[in-house]
Amino acid sequence: MKPIRLVFAMCVVALATTVASAQYFGKNKVQYTNFKWQYLQSEHFNIYFTEGGQGIAEFAAEVAEQSYASLKKDFRYELTDRITIIVHNSHNDFGQTNVDLSPPDEAVGGFTEFFKNRVVVPYDGEWERLRHVIHHELTHAVMLQMVYGSGVQSIITGLTRLQLPLWLVEGLAEFESRGWDFESDMYMRDAAINGYLPEIEMLGGFMAYKGGQSVLLFIGERYGRQKIGELLGKIKVSKSVERGFRQAVGVNVKDLSRRWQKWVKELYWPDIGSHREPEDFAKRLTDHKKDRNFVNTSPALSPKGDKIAFLSDRSDYFDVYLMSAVDGQILAKLVSGQKTANLEELHWLKGPNIRNSSPSARPLSQAATCGARSGRRTASTSCSGPRRERVTCCTWLTSNSGRSCGLCVSLWMEPLTRAGVRTAPRLLSPALTTDRATSMWWSSKASSCAS
Prior knowledge:
Blueprint: E1 7-11, E2 37-41, E3 45-50, H1 54-75, E4 83-88, H2 91-94, E5 108-113, E6 118-122, H3 127-148, H4 152-161, H5 166-178, H6 182-193, H7 206-223, H8 226-238, H9 241-249, H10 253-268, H11 278-281, H12 288-291, E7 296-301, E8 307-312, E9 319-324, E10 330-336, E11 354-356, E12 364-366, E13 368-369, E14 378-384, E15 390-398, E16 404-412, E17 417-418, E18 421-422, E19 437-438
Parallel strand pairs: 3-4, 4-6
Antiparallel strand pairs: 1-5, 2-3, 5-6, 7-8, 8-9, 9-10, 11-12, 13-19, 14-15, 15-16, 17-18
Helix pairs in contact: 1-3, 3-5, 3-8, 5-7, 6-10, 8-9
């Protein structure tokens, strides 16, 4: 999450980072492709896109105009300058942008570059996600133009006089782009029931998004949605967030925080009476506090139900582990991720990401980012290693332009048999999306590996 002085990023998990530099520690900004840029114009936006992305750009233009119509009504503000939207065909293409020089990981779903009023977003295969990110980032762009004006000199002058808190900036963007949704509701319910609901001024990280969204929902329901635009106007005129809240809703931020916390508790605490803890009816297999990690996700059961493959960051990298479903003992690390260019990201933010290929088959599939040279046209496999359970296998994906990308992983394999004849392990290929997903697979036993 970039500081407000430079860039606002739409992240699924918000983390504070330093100001962009030409090279981050241990990472280069690699540009694999020479893009051929085109653009189209709508009433208020210039949409730049690359070859093959016209349909995405047309969708982005439509969403941008619809989003602006909603923002104009809520903020009671009309744009003075056109906003540029740069749309990439995939997250890998997005990772090569030079609008911001830091290498964006998969948590970054888009960002707003403030000084030149540019929004940069990737299409990752989901139209709803793209709609949400465009609306979210345009909320930043419109709000910042409203509060600070346009032009570098005006922006710098405005930033020296007024710094907007992260919870207000990101909470407003989430509220405008989503209203109130199931994900946010579950997040706030968990915070209220488990006692980690902070004061408004302490909302940070991902809670700046969801907690800030909840605060804006509270303001809209308690004082009226029209107060949101009035609040921004008062903050702009008074050059103070504290004075802006007092003038718009009649209370300062501390008093608002107490009222908001009480409202959240009244909303969710009645659930405690009918609430059952998972330990009441199930056995805990992972413990992030004991293991001192954050993520244990994407579980996939073996056909017999005695083993679970799952994604975890317990090594400080995202890896795939095999665990006993009986006692939670770790049996093996199947894949070591984020340590080579062939396994840059294991897409831990994109929901269940390890899947059985079929109810009767043993192999599993796992999506991963593999540089920029992957595609959807042809695939072949080769494996190396002794005849034992764990081997190293590589998947080579050839793009439509003929360029190849290798994905090498350590895994367990079992050759398929047909009429007693041993054959090569077949490639499991779930829909390879435009974010350059590839596959890896393993099973509970193996005796050989053929190329």
